[in-house]
Specification:
The complex is a heterotetramer of chains A (644), B (201), C (121) and D (312). Chain A has 644 residues and is mainly α. Helices cover 68% and strands 1% of the residues of chain A. In chain D, β6 and β7 (184-189) form a beta hairpin. Classes of the chains: A mainly alpha (644), B mainly alpha (201), C mainly alpha (121), D alpha+beta (312). Chains in contact: A-B, A-C, A-D, B-C, C-D. Chain A: Pfam families: COX1.
């Protein structure tokens, strides 16, 4: 392979990307060397198995990916507002909407939520870490390297360009040769394995490591949403693993699953993809529901209304999510009977979702609402999400869907549910739990400014798209007819509003780091659940003594009784796992093998695979059982943290 | 975590770590069911789409398949005996039966490789049609699982020989046994829905 | 489960014999009997499910109390198999349309197949 | 602070209002301005559902505004109307489960009946046999074959009004979707498979048609024009094409199949169905076999700015 085929050439934007990547990387390397922080980075972060630190790394990576995906979105909006400028050509536009979709779903929404789960769930259930801390680190690095792999396609080898759904036969070897689609396949595969492992890990954690007394139906609602999400992950991700593997075998080893030749069946890809893809939508929306429930209950200063209904509606949504996948391709021509079945099952999801909306509204009834930034995100979610939800029901009506399908109406719908649901929740959750993670709050003024820019920008961007969709504008076109121009220009203006909102949000992180008051108590918001029972910053072992949590809103009950998580008489040595470099090394080797496979360098890929197997063997012989934190040490740490 | 060790019951469940790992593995197996069922679904949908390649009815031979099935069924049984020996506290019995299991597993693999080569000679390869792609991927994924299981068990045998029965080694042995039985479960479905139905229809 | 204290693994041997018998029975039903194809398929799939039950309950200690896992393994296996049914049956249900994959008689065969699918679910 | 909150509420109140306002202008939107019975039935369904959705939106927004305004923690509110332990009410929870369920059932009925209706030719022209047109997508153009008339057009289409058109959809290579928004919704075109789509125009006129499903670089430009004419005018056109258009040779057809964007329109006095039907198993890999290497070429397509716009 020649060098100019290896590196992407001929695009000013790509050259710009290359230069900025080189600059940022060298700046990071320089700073780390200058401040002699390499050892610190390795010991404290790269080898950590602490769920809180791993969660922070997840969130940081997700924010970076939000930036990348957001830039993609901006470029698309610029192109559509000024189609005559030829800012992007067709090929480049295809690449950008593909990476935008893939990154936002796989490398932004999921890691962001998994990051929050990582930090909060063990704290909420009174656990000292995950069930399998080593596996947790492994999951993170598999996500991280998967994301890196996907992102370098921008400068090396060329980005995938068949849409985030990567429909065959377009994405097959015949019609999309070269490494682009392989990047998509391997990037998703690598991070998908990590997600599956996280799902198992969190499920075992929640099922087996809850504080004594905390029955399943006493768990905080965010933990419940995590448990249900894990259930979906465990049953949905293997489908993606197989689908990706089949397409990889098709593309690299010449099989005929989804090809036009050899009697392959291209639509089988769509079938498998959406069998995973639809549950995936709920993987990113259920934790968001959990976050909103926590935030709303906290700042309404009131107990969550209809806790049991909330939990059961989530379980019902999870079950239904596996029964509706065909609504993504009603237009395939499967016949009126098949479409009727899936049309009805799709609309049924509206029922439990509606129940949740009304429960949140009822939580506000007879409450005392405090308009903090996380609460504003949660409140803005309710009306915005309802607009997305009702249009979802309309899309679920298969006969009408023939007109909505692949149009901007659909684009508007899923951005309304995914941004108003997931992205708002990420912001709400991050700002809500920020003091727990970093020991200081985010500035409220900048937070609200970011909120207004983002929320108004969001509606301005996507509300017109419903109408331009009804006017017959299909998705994924890189220029448009004059009739669609005015609404598209409005959309672009809105997108810039969202961009400014995000910029203010990021600035706020820096500003608050410099200026915010440091937290003295661990209970920043007068919280209700156990994560607020620990001091801030949270000691690495989380709880000095694990509380007996037999009440819903366990921390609220503890506060009433005057209990804390530091009972000097009950202290015992705490067993903790040791840090290890194995996860990052193993996944770096796996990324190397994947990279080789992307370019179809089979020998190198096999060498890499053997390397991964050797790392697994080493792990098998690893009998490091961790260490104990002695009682005196705990006392010292807790007294210092609590200012006793 | 390993602080509160239980005094009675099977060794592998006595530590909390052991319980967590075994439970986690059960959940992993549930994911494996979905993984294999996706392959089965692909196979079922692509059934009959052989293009110009031979049809399964022409190639499948009941004799080879039955031998493979009996080998794997027997290995599942010997694996069960190995766990029985472990619970009686006999390292020697455990190692002996585990080795028998592995030998049977290797025999199974040998037949499978022979079978694949035979089909390839007859013109049915991964590339020849959608049906054969699905067949080789389904059977091959199972074969790959068996191979990994054998490699994993060999590593475990070394640890058993070195350390004897501890909560950790017995936990690992138990998990491998779950894995091995599970591969048998998958094979039963491959035997039934791939080979038998392939020969009938 | 009292089985691990026993010297002689009765349960395993019963399970083993049963699984061999069921395998032979399935092979006979498929190849030696004159039953209609639909009956054969239904019959041998039932036999397969019974065999899986034997593996899970008699070999894999799925319901063991001491595991501390409670009903979780059982629950996950159950849902795993439900999902497997949804994936396989659902794929067949949705994917058996408008395709002409047979070589000789275009339309007829495919319609029959479609009807079969529909009546099956 | 307080000022901002009111500001926000005003915005939220504007949302449903703007919806009503925009709906009044909706008759100009293509999908809501159908020119045939298929599009009409889909429009009816959309409008029918829209009223329910609007109802739901108004109820939720009103409740939301009420809660947020009434129960905000303003200074001096005290503990009046504050019940921190209120955590459920079975009666009301049943109500808000059952009502959505009823709405879903109400929506399901017309959805299912419309679905089954769409699989048949529209009833309004039941006295006439549908006109069969094979619509084949190839990267990135459209072939329309009229087997009865034995003519074929590329990138444009003539249809008679008041007569059902039975489109037989297939593709030579990548997956596409035939979508003529003013006549009705889309269905996929796939190689080796054949989908049937019934459409009908009740008014004569020229309508935009396009590929609705992304299929690579030339996707944006894979459009065509539909000319709906009175039966007689249509017959004249058919006759004219038969007499004047050249014959399509297999060689020329193979060349046309090569991936490219084609601006011009073409007509032929025979159809390609004679040597290949891409909707059958035999025809599925016809284009791939001939042009496998051509799919690797990038076209570097840019928007060619034209004075009168591309779509005319």
């Amino acid at each position: 392979m020649k060098l100019d085929e290896f590196f992407v050439t001929g695009e000013p934007l790509v050259y710009g990307g290359m230069v900025s990547i080189v600059l940022v990387t060298s700046a990071v390397i320089f700073l780390l060397t200058y401040f002699k922080r390499w050892g610190w980075l390795w010991r404290e972060w790269l080898t950590t198995v602490d769920h809180k630190k791993i969660g922070i790394m997840y969130i940081l990576s997700a924010l970076a990916m939000l930036f990348r995906g957001g830039m993609d979105a901006m470029m698309m909006r610029i192109q559509l507002a000024f189609p005559n400028m030829n800012f992007l050509n067709a090929q480049h536009y295809d690449e950008i909407f593909t990476t935008h979709g893939t990154i936002m779903i796989i490398f932004m929404a999921m890691p962001f939520l998994i990051g929050l789960m990582n930090i909060i769930v063990p704290l909420q259930i009174g656990a000292r870490d995950f069930a399998f801390p080593f596996v947790n680190a492994l999951s993170f690095w598999s996500f991280f390297f998967g994301a890196m792999l996907f992102n370098i396609s921008f400068v090396i080898g060329g980005s995938p360009d068949a849409g985030w759904t990567s429909y065959t036969p377009l994405s097959g070897a015949a019609m999309s040769p070269g490494p682009g689609q392989n990047f998509y396949l391997m990037g998703l595969q690598l991070s998908g394995i990590g997600t599956l492992a996280t799902g198992i890990n969190l499920m075992v954690t929640i099922l087996k490591m809850r504080a004594p007394g905390m029955k399943l139906f006493k768990m905080p609602i965010f933990t419940w949403s995590t448990l249900v999400t894990c259930f979906i992950i465990i049953f949905a991700f293997p489908i993606l693993t197989v689908a990706l593997a089949l397409l990889t075998i098709d593309r690299i080893f010449g099989a005929q699953f989804f090809t036009v030749t050899g009697e392959g069946m291209p639509m089988m890809w769509a079938n498998l993809f959406w069998m995973w893809g639809h549950p995936e939508v709920y993987i990113v929306i259920l934790p968001a529901f959990g976050i909103f429930s926590e935030v709303i209950a906290t700042f309404a200063r009131k107990r969550l209304f209809g806790y049991h209904a909330m939990v059961w509606s989530m379980i019902l949504i999870a079950g239904l999510s596996f029964l509706v996948w065909v609504h993504h391709f009603f237009t395939m021509g499967a016949g009126a009977f098949v479409n009727s079945v899936f049309s009805v099952s799709t609309m049924l999801i509206a029922v439990p979702t509606g129940v949740k909306i009304f429960n949140w509204l009822a939580t506000l009834y007879k409450s005392k609402i405090e308009f903090t930034t996380p609460m504003m995100w949660s409140l803005a979610f309710i009306p915005s999400f309802v607009l997305g939800g009702v249009t979802g029901v309309m899309l679920g009506m298969a006969a009408a869907d023939y007109q909505f399908h692949n149009s901007y109406f659909l684009i508007a719908h899923f951005h309304y549910v995914l941004i108003a649901g997931t992205v708002f929740a990420c912001f709400a959750g991050l700002e809500y739990w920020y003091p727990k993670m970093f020991g200081h709050k985010l500035n409220e003024r900048f937070g609200k400014l970011a909120f207004w820019f983002f929320v108004i920008g969001f509606h301005v961007t996507f509300f017109p798209q419903y109408f331009v969709g009804l006017d017959g504008m299909p998705r994924r076109v890189f220029y448009i007819i004059p009739e669609w121009m005015p609404l598209n220009v409005i959309s672009t203006v809105g997108a810039f509003g969202m961009g400014i909102g995000f910029a203010i949000f990021v600035f706020n992180i820096y500003y608050s780091y410099r200026n915010s008051e440091r937290e003295k108590t661990g209970d920043s918001w007068d919280g209700r659940t156990l994560e607020w029972a620990t001091p801030t910053p949270v000691p690495f072992y989380n709880f000095a003594t694990v509380p007996h949590a037999d009440k819903y809103d366990a921390f609220l009950a503890m506060k009433k009784k005057g209990e804390t998580t530091f009972d000097e008489e009950k202290l015992k040595p705490i067993h903790m796992p040791s840090n290890t470099g194995q996860p990052i090394i193993m996944m770096a080797i796996a990324a190397f093998a994947s990279f080789a496979l992307i370019f179809e360098w089979i020998t190198l890929a096999v060498i890499g695979l053997v390397g991964v197997l050797i790392m697994m063997g080493i792990r098998s012989f690893d009998y490091d059982e961790g260490y104990h934190v002695e009682v005196d040490e705990i006392k010292r740490i807790e007294r210092e943290a609590r200012g006793l | 975590m390993s602080a509160h060790e239980m005094k009675s019951g099977p060794l592998e469940y006595r530590t909390q770590e052991g319980q967590l790992s075994i439970l986690g593995f059960w959940i992993f197996l549930a994911a494996e069911i979905v993984l294999f069922s996706t392959l089965f679904a692909t196979y079922a949908v692509l059934f009959g789409r052989t293009a110009d390649a031979p049809t399964p009815g022409e190639l499948f031979e009941i004799k080879t398949v039955l031998i493979m099935t009996f080998l794997l069924l027997t290995s599942s049984f010997t694996c069960g005996i190995a766990i029985h020996q472990m619970r009686r506290g006999s390292v020697k019995g455990l190692i002996t039966w585990l080795i028998i299991t592995l030998v049977l597993g290797i025999g199974f693999l040998g037949f499978e490789i022979y079978e694949f080569i035979h089909y390839a000679h007859e013109g049915a390869t991964l590339q020849s049609s959608a049906f054969w792609s699905a067949f080789f991927t389904l059977a091959g994924t199972h074969g790959l699982h068996v191979t990994l299981g054998i490699g994993w068990a060999v590593l475990l045998l070394i640890q058993l020989a070195k350390r004897g029965l501890t909560p950790v080694t017995s936990r690992k042995t138990f998990i491998i046994s779950l894995y091995w039985h599970f591969l048998d479960v998958v094979w039963i479905f491959i035997f039934t829905s791939v080979y038998l139905i392939g020969m009938v229809v | 489960m009292a089985e691990h204290s026993k010297r002689f693994p009765v349960q395993h041997i019963i399970g083993f014999v049963l699984s061999i018998v069921l395998t032979v029975l399935a092979a006979w039903a498929a190849l030696g009997s004159d039953l209609p194809v639909k009956w054969i398929i239904a019959g041998i799939m039932t036999l397969a499910v019974i065999q899986v039950g034997i593996q899970l309950f008699m070999f894999m200690h799925m319901t063991e109390r001491e595991s501390g896992g409670g009903h979780v393994p059982w629950n996950m296996m159950f849902h795993g198999f439900v999902l497997a049914a949804i994936i396989v049956a659902g794929s067949l249900f949705t994917m058996s349309f408008g395709f002409t994959h047979d070589h000789d008689d275009g339309g007829n065969h495919q319609q029959e197949e479609q009807q079969e699918e529909h009546s099956g679910h | 602070m307080k000022h901002r909150q009111q500001h926000w509420r005003r915005w939220l109140a504007l949302l449903p209002l703007s919806l009503v306002f925009l709906l009044s202008g909706c008759s100009e939107l293509t999908v809501l301005d159908p020119k045939g019975p298929v599009g009409q039935s889909q429009k009816d369904l959309i409008v029918f559902s829209l009223w329910f959705m609007l109802g739901i939106v108004i109820v939720v927004f009103a409740l939301f505004a009420f809660m947020v305004i009434k129960y905000r923690n303003r200074p001096g509110r005290g503990d009046k109307d504050y019940d921190p332990d209120l955590h459920g009410n079975t009666a009301i929870e049943i109500v808000w489960t059952v009502i959505p369920l009823i709405i879903v059932i109400i929506l399901s009925v017309p959805t299912v009946t419309t679905l089954f209706d769409l699989e048949k030719p529209p009833e309004s022209s039941g006295d006439k046999e549908p006109l069969v047109i094979y619509a084949t997508s190839a990267d990135w153009k459209w072939f329309f074959s009229y087997p009865e008339q034995n003519i074929e057009t590329v990138n444009y289409l003539h249809i008679p009004t008041d007569r059902a058109i039975e489109f037989r959809l297939s593709s030579a290579d990548s997956m596409a979707a035939l979508w003529i928004p003013q006549l009705g919704g889309q269905k996929y075109n796939m190689a080796g498979m054949e989908n049937t789509l019934y459409l009908q125009a009740d008014e004569s006129g020229t309508y935009d048609g396009r590929n609705g499903n992304f299929n690579g670089e030339g996707f944006t430009e894979q459009t065509f024009k539909v000319h709906a004419q009175e039966e007689e005018a249509f017959n004249d056109w058919v006759q004219e094409t038969k007499n004047e258009a050249p014959e399509l040779t297999q060689e020329e057809y193979d060349q046309l199949l090569e991936p490219s964007v084609m601006d011009e329109q073409m007509a032929f006095s025979n159809t390609h169905l004679k040597w290949v039907d891409h909707g059958t198993n035999e025809g599925r890999d016809y284009a791939i076999k001939r042009h496998r290497d051509a799919y690797q070429e990038l076209l570097h397509l840019e928007n060619e700015v034209k004075g009168d716009g591309k779509h005319d």
